Amino acid sequence: MKDDTIYDVIILGAGAAGLAAGIYTSRAKLSTLILNEGTPGGQLVLTHEIANYPGVESTSGYQLGNIMKKQAKSFGCKIKSNLHITAVDLKSETKTVEVNGKDTYAAHTVILAPGGRPRMLNVPGEEEFKGRGISYCATCDGDFFQDKEIIVVGGGNSALEEAVSLTKYASKVTIVHQFDHFQGFEHAIRDARENEKIEFEMESMIQEFIGNENLEAARVKNMRTGEEKIINVEGTFIFIGYVPNTAFFKDVVELNEYGELLTDDRMKTNIPGVYGAGDSVKKPYRQVTTAVADGTIAALSAAEYVNEIKRKQKDLSEA
């Protein structure tokens, strides 16, 4: 089925960047369609607490994402979720996106905001115990580990903040980190170090997950001394970054060696009328605020592009 509407903007992805872009383009009276492979909110909904979003004292990622979705829809933005993108033509003047192998949508411009997915350790037992003790989402699974001992893997802000959050449930949290120092902000490091429920295995890496029906332990190796130990735990939460969801676009738009979208300061990609935004874009920091900023800039740039197309079309019709 082909949707005969030619939208002004199609946005691929409904995380913080995509929803922010949708708010801006639809409020600017541009016909906007968001196509999303998962549920609206993206990685945002996995965050238990957001306390550093300007103007909001504290909220959950789910609540913030839901508000952003409602805002976009209130301005006329259409959102279609839980679908699969099967083909794109971004180089033609009118861009097209095919979903589920049958439905085709067209637009003057496209904003790519596919986000990312949790990076895996890729060690024995990880795949086997995924969902049976191994998780990548504290918000989703934290309360399953009430009064149990768990491991948190990672040394950035996400790992440190979620480790502190998980102490509301777990009796003990062991942070396993491969370096002798953390990569998080000072306040996140301080909060973790001052929490009596948290212990640390620095310069260490998990070698294997062990269990029967469910996770029962992890084999951890100190990379400096070579010493290995078994830590008995019922849960492990892995926060070691994200992989951009851009594999589908590797032969379509320019990416770097890490699969990140390459954009300029106006969020333009190497293809005219195609923009990038959010965690899939090459940049040093990934926060909700930076995703929203990307989405805003991409939306304003896309609006300029669409308005120029319409101006030229008007000039031709009047000639």
TrEMBL record:
Residue stretches in coiled coil: none
Note describing how the cofactor binds: Binds 1 FAD per subunit.
Residue ranges constituting the FAD/NAD(P)-binding domain according to the UniProt record: 7-295
Record keyword Oxidoreductase present: yes
PROSITE patterns tied to this protein: PYRIDINE_REDOX_2
Signal peptide, first to last residue: none
Single biological process term from Gene Ontology: removal of superoxide radicals
Protein known as: Thioredoxin reductase
Provenance organism: Prolixibacter denitrificans
